[in-house]
Amino acid sequence: MSEEQSSYRQIMKATSLFGGVQVFQIIVQIIKSKIIAVLLGPIGMGIVGLLTSSLGLISGLTNFGLGTSAVKYIAEANGIANETRIATITIVLRRLIWLTGALGTIITLMLSPWLSQLTFGNKDYTLTFVWISITLLFNQLTSGEMVLLQGMRKLQYLAKANLYGSVLGLIITVPLYYKLGIQGIVPVIIVTSLVSFLLSRYFSRKISIKHIRVTQVRTIAESKNMLTMGFMISLTGLITLGASYIVRIFINRAGSIADVGLYNAGFAIINTYVGLIFTAMATDYYPRLSKVAHNDDHSKLTINQQSEIALLILSPILIVFLVFINWVVVLLYSTKFIAVNGMIYWAALGMFFKAASWAIAFVFLAKGASKLFFWSELIANIYLLGLNLLGYYLWGLTGLGLSFLIGYLLYLVQVYIIANMKYKFTYGKGFKKIFSFQLTLAVCCFLSDNFSHQPYPYIIGVVLIIISGWYSFRELDKRLEIISIFRNYRNK
């Protein structure tokens, strides 16, 4: 087996593991979303979306990016098998996690009346924010344990923690929403965050960490490294969350809270159900890219390989969604959510450009260029926010899908130019061929869905799905020798 094939297979192994977990989590999420859609309706989904967005905003303000920056330091220590270094970083990380988590809870408590007024236009939800403030602590503690599992490459433990958390979350959600309706939103948010922490802690304790004493002076010194990088990441995350928060507030004021629920539902399909590929890959990709970040040629190869695999897996899924979006929306939610179809059509095309830009953006973090990453994301969030507000103002929910497409096209151009100028990055012929072919199929599918009459969109769409799936399988076989692996397995 060549080194290149080994690299491709490592990507697929991690993607398969976390892709399987993500698929299971998506099934659970589908059931939960269906329950919320049926029992709570668009208004209930809107309330959930506004509450979680508010918590996300406070978390982005107080978590200092430790969930990302600490992975790099733990992965580096694990790469050289330095047990003392691993133990030191782990102890320092856990101290910082407690401090930042408590900070998030305290700020939410203090600002609860203001958050209610800003988010819902009244102070009726003040007590709600008081109750859910504790989840800032639980979520940050969970993040710390997950960082340890990811940095130490304990992917199976990490997968199990996510898997079991999804199952227990569903078991908790169903009876609470059935019994309490909208009044069950707060208990669900609190209990699920607590369960996630307990599970992540259980699996992280399985890792053998050397017992050492870390002084206060050493803690401060080590903290500076993580917090310096994490602060820029935190600012970036805060800007992203803030932009999302403003969009939801704008939709609520210019439209209605039901539109907020529809917006949440539509992008749950794109970012959660379709975007599982990014979530599955990122867990392994970031630490792996960090190991070769010192070498521009190795970084370029790693980014190209990751991008190729992402598109080959993602493209047939996107085309399936384009063809059967009406059925998908009704299946996942209800007929009340059909209004999001136009938004999803445009956003699905935008996912191709997100896939192409996603892999590049990681190189800034892997190389420790946190300031460059911050300014790049700041500029992107400014024009993405402007496009979202303009899109909704002019064309409603469909305009948000169009703004997603235009925004990620601009973002791809932006990160590519920066990476090319700073690190001499270029996309290889293999990626360009895959991207051009699959995007062409998706555009044909889009045009067929919007400009032809039934049953032709389904007939043409099924043909395009088959072509896309066959092409992806053929290209994956070139890189992984899937057929040879299957034959060897069958012979054994």
Strands, helices and their partners?
Blueprint: H1 3-39, H2 41-62, H3 66-79, H4 83-120, H5 126-132, H6 134-151, H7 155-180, H8 185-204, H9 216-254, H10 257-274, H11 276-292, H12 296-323, H13 325-332, H14 341-366, H15 370-423, H16 429-451, H17 456-480, H18 482-491
Helix pairs in contact: 1-2, 1-7, 1-11, 1-12, 2-4, 2-9, 2-10, 3-4, 3-6, 3-9, 3-11, 4-5, 4-6, 4-9, 6-8, 7-8, 9-10, 9-15, 10-14, 11-12, 11-14, 12-14, 12-16, 12-17, 14-15, 14-16, 16-17
The whole-angstrom Rg is 23 Å
Tally of contiguous helical segments: 18
The H/E string reads: HHHHHHHHHHHHHHHHHH
- Stretches where pLDDT is under 50 for at least 5 consecutive residues are none
Number of domains: 2
What portion of residues belong to β-strands?
A: under 5%
Question: What is the arithmetic mean of pLDDT?
Answer: 83
Tell me about the largest β-sheet: none
Give a structural overview.
Helix content is 87%, strand content 0%. It contains 18 helices and no strands. α4 packs antiparallel against α5 (126-132), α4 (83-120) runs antiparallel to α6 (134-151) and α6 (134-151) runs parallel beside α8.
List keywords for this structure.
492 residues, mainly alpha, 18 helices, 87% helix, 0% strand, globular
Describe what is shown at a glance.
With 492 residues, the protein is mostly helical. The protein has helices at 3-39, 41-62, 66-79, 83-120, 126-132, 134-151, 155-180, 185-204, 216-254, 257-274, 276-292, 296-323, 325-332, 341-366, 370-423, 429-451, 456-480, 482-491. The protein has two domains: 25-254, no CATH class; 255-492, no CATH class.
